[in-house]
Records
---
Amino acid sequence: MTAFVLSFWLICRRINQKKNSFNVTIDNIYDFAVGALLVSLISARIYYVLFNLKEYKARPLEIFKVWNGGLAIYGAIIGLILYAIVFCKKKKINFYNLADLIVPYLALSQSIGRWGNFINQEAYGGITNLPWKMGVFDNVVGEYIYVHPTFFYESICTFTLFLILMKLSKNRGFEGQIFFSYMIGYGLVRSIVEGFRADSLMLGIFRISQVLSVIFVVLFGILYFYKKSCRTKVV
């Protein structure tokens, strides 16, 4: 919620700047934010449950107990994209303009939100002796173990991605450039970080988030260069 409120405030500030090429109003953002928060939470939960069906088939009521954990960021991202497409069509807003405006702050939100993993002692990686290792208490062995702080890896990488996207957005070459750059950038980040994690959602022998990340990098990389080749330059 801290990440959401901060990002919302920064987006509104950006809209009020004199040089604003996104053609999105604060009223649009207010309307979008209300639904976006709800949709992202629901879609993040659905994604997690779908890839843990064995666990929830025996106890279906656990699906609704989100306070016990189980939200997947890729579920939230996919849900937000679909919601944004519908929202923009209804409000007659250019989807790429809205997406270009929002995604830098989505990266910032992810950077902040990952510290929730640290507080909950979750989403960490395998055992390591590296100098930046993180100690967590393992209830199985009854002692501390030292692991990769994968939450921190992703937090640093997504904050760096935020800075890069903000720099790019000052001189957008074409509508959708920032959105495509985010999808490619986060796909690269997650495909690497996911390889260190010890709690990945699995589909057979494959890490689901890693596979999806590679697909996103390839798909949105192709879309980036296609859109760039037939671009409408932003003035």
Note: The chain has one domain: 2-229.
---
Amino acid sequence: MARTRPIMPAWFHRLGSPKGFYSMTTPWLPWLAAASLVLLIGGAVWGLGFAPADAKQGNSFRIIYIHVPSAFLALAGYYVMAVAGAIGLIWRMKLSFVAMKAAAPLGAALTLISLVTGALWGKPTWGTYWVWDARITSMLVLFFLYLGVIALHYAYTNGEAAGKAAAVLALVGTANIPIIYKSVDWWYTLHQPATIKLTEAPSMHPSMFQPLLVMIAGFYCLYALVLILNIRAEILHRERGSHWVVELARSRRS
């Protein structure tokens, strides 16, 4: 009996093509932009203006509303990049390497923000901007992994070869993610334990924790928005000679 291939939903195939992705995501952009704006402004005002000062750290703890969301997205964004690379290697979906290339600079920026805000937080807390702490060092490794993926995309003249090489590095680098997450449990470290755990109640008071959740949601919406915009820009660059891109450019000029 002949084997039949699993039937994928039509929307999945459409989302996997450059033209389909571009057209499908167009109506998403204003909603993501509005959600990002509302959540980030609301969370920032709530956390910076109305949350009480920490009993030990005072107002310096408020950098958590930037540091923690950026660190969350730096880790989650690496998985997004690595999964996109795996899909490109295994199923050779045309858009996968595009998504991986678009996610790399965004993840690098978030990792850098996490490192800088962590250093600014560390100065009043530890008395120094930098220590070779297990969590901080593994985050620095993450930043270099992102830079490596970016560099590989520009090291090859052949786009497919660049995508494959970058995907291999992205997949190898996923071993660093659990190290980052568990570093505060596996080694002696100055870095405080995780604020949010799925198996335990948060260590913060609700008046401080709730605006943090709002900021995390805002960062996720902003990440999705910028990632989609990056992918769309890369699609237009790669498909600039295609009939549908030419027609799109004509319709915008008219």
Note: Residues 67 and 116 are 9 Å apart (CA to CA).
---
Amino acid sequence: MLTPYGRNNAFLLLGIGACVLLLALTPVGTALQVILIALGIIIIGFTLWFFRDAERPLIAEAQNNPALIVAPADGQVVNVDSVAYSPELGGPAIQISIFLSPVNLHVNRYPASGTIVEARYIPGAYLMAFNPKSSMENERSLFVLETAAGRISYQQITGFLARRIVYDTKVGDVVSAGKRFGMMKFGSRMDVVVPASAKVVVRPGDKVVSAHSILARLVSKVD
């Protein structure tokens, strides 16, 4: 199934792939026909793979525990860094960065349940997504989520190839962990920022799965 967040791009690419295959039916020579058929199949195959959607039930452990922060995207953890001061959280924090390669599922999901208190698009550059500077300099969308266990923030960040962010979140939305909210197209990065008091359970190099992998546990005042 194709994700609704990318169907416009998907249909365009599928159309291009179909046109390439039709071109292969014209008398252009056997060698060129083989190349065109292969190219058409590659375009169609990549499109169906990249813009695929998948059911990802929220991990049972997090369903009734607002303190657990789950991965909002598939990919690999590339950084777990201390942040001296997060303006969104109002204090020291920890940033967890997830890199999405072009072969990862690019549909994004909410990392926790709560109320969206900030949602904004920030224009910027297109540095490689694994570059630490991309968190502050690249085009991105920033969200701040107030959960029952505390406040977190997260960002969809474009990369060198990704030039399009899609989301349907606005301030005031009451959201549920694991539910879809958007996607980043053609390779990108997702940052999740939690208070410094949180217990982070992932480290660089870990592979994570959206709605299934736990990133951190918030420590509330009563813990």
Note: Residues 129 and 159 are 4 Å apart (CA to CA).
